[in-house]
Design goal:
The structure holds 2 protein chains of 2 kinds.
Chain A: H1 2-26, H2 28-46, H3 57-60, H4 82-113, H5 120-141, H6 154-177, H7 183-196, H8 210-241, H9 247-259
Chain B: H1 4-9, H2 12-41, H3 45-57
Classes of the chains: A mainly alpha, B mainly alpha.
Chain lengths: ~260, ~60
């Protein structure tokens, strides 16, 4: 069983990761590099790495074009061009693999334990829910940012991000799989992170023009939506194709359950 | 939801098959979460730099 789950996740993660890398190559990577040119210009003037927010250790080592050389030990950074795209690709394939494992586990719970059908439509729904959980809900509080803009402390943002993802996942699962009585706490869970509010800097500063920032937000949310929907439907159709859920067995037991009086159906 | 009638309605052999798959499903979920969050959140500068562009696009909190 585990082997087949891993194969499903490898294929879905690889295909989605490569596709998303191709999209990034034509959209977000050029914008990030454009933003870095502002950042590095500031870095050259001031003589330090361009980041104004230095609440975390990574900030000083962030820039990509060597403005941080002043610091002496320049950490490894992928070169612009093929190397940079290659590492973006590796990252996307790994993200896809991990995310496909999570979605596959969810689909198997759905199929094996609730004995409901798994098809690419269900996969699309799970992908959409994962998009809401891991991309849209966190982005509502912490919009995707370009290099060179100010932000609150990294720790606080990471804690809020993870809390939001957990609350959103629980809320959506309750809406999808629980009785209507659970709607009230479910909606409460969905709203809670936004009532608490994401950590923000006192003053929002950015080196990049606001219109560029806005288009980056749109591109970023759009790209992650494609990532999750593609991954969800692909994972589900592979789960089906690899026969991870024995369909004959499922329909047999579903018939038994119906005879036994399953009031949910 | 009330799963008791569903559980009772499953033949013993079937229930065993479902339970037998539980560790594999749980392992897949844990491994998936580990890989996903390691790529999105890992601190070391080299990992951050390699994953940089995708972290920005996927809206992970980044530097």
């Amino acid at each position: 069983m585990l082997n087949r789950i891993l194969i499903v996740a490898l294929i879905a993660g690889f295909v989605t990761g490569v596709a998303v890398t191709a999209i990034q190559l034509g959209s977000s990577i050029p914008i990030i590099q454009y933003a870095e040119s502002f950042e590095n210009a500031v870095g050259d003037e001031v003589g330090v790495a361009g980041h104004k927010h230095t609440n975390d250790s990574a900030a000083l080592s962030h820039d990509h074009n060597g403005a941080g050389m002043v610091a002496g030990h320049e950490p490894w950074v992928p070169e612009d061009g093929i190397e940079r795209v290659f590492w973006a690709g590796i990252t996307n394939v790994l993200l896809g693999f991990g995310a496909a494992l999570l979605i596959a586990a969810g689909l198997l719970l759905h199929g094996l334990f609730l004995r409901k059908p798994v098809n690419s439509l269900i996969g699309l729904a799970w992908g959409g829910a994962a998009f809401l959980t891991f991309s849209l809900a966190p982005a509502l509080g912490l919009p995707p940012e370009l290099p060179g803009s100010s932000a609150a402390a990294l720790d606080a943002r990471q804690v809020w991000w993870i809390g939001t993802a957990v609350a959103t996942a629980m809320g959506l699962a309750m809406i999808a799989y629980c009785r209507w009585l659970w709607m009230v706490p479910a909606i409460g869970l969905l709203l809670l992170p936004h009532v608490i509010g994401a950590p923000h800097p006192e003053v929002h500063e950015s080196l990049v023009p606001a219109s560029v920032e806005e288009s980056f937000i749109v591109i970023s949310v759009g790209t992650s939506m494609i990532f999750w929907l593609m991954l969800g439907s692909l994972t589900a159709s592979l789960v089906r194709r690899m026969n991870l859920i024995d369909r004959e067995r499922i329909s047999e037991t579903a018939a038994v359950a119906a005879a036994g009086g399953d009031d949910r159906e | 939801m009330n799963i008791a009638p569903i559980i009772q309605s499953i033949p013993n052999t079937e229930l065993n098959a479902v339970v037998a798959n539980l560790p594999a499903v749980a392992f897949a979920a844990v491994l998936g979460a580990f890989v996903f969050f390691a790529v999105g959140f890992a601190g070391p500068t080299e990992i951050h730099n390699a994953a940089h562009d995708s972290r920005h696009v996927m809206a992970f909190p980044c530097h």
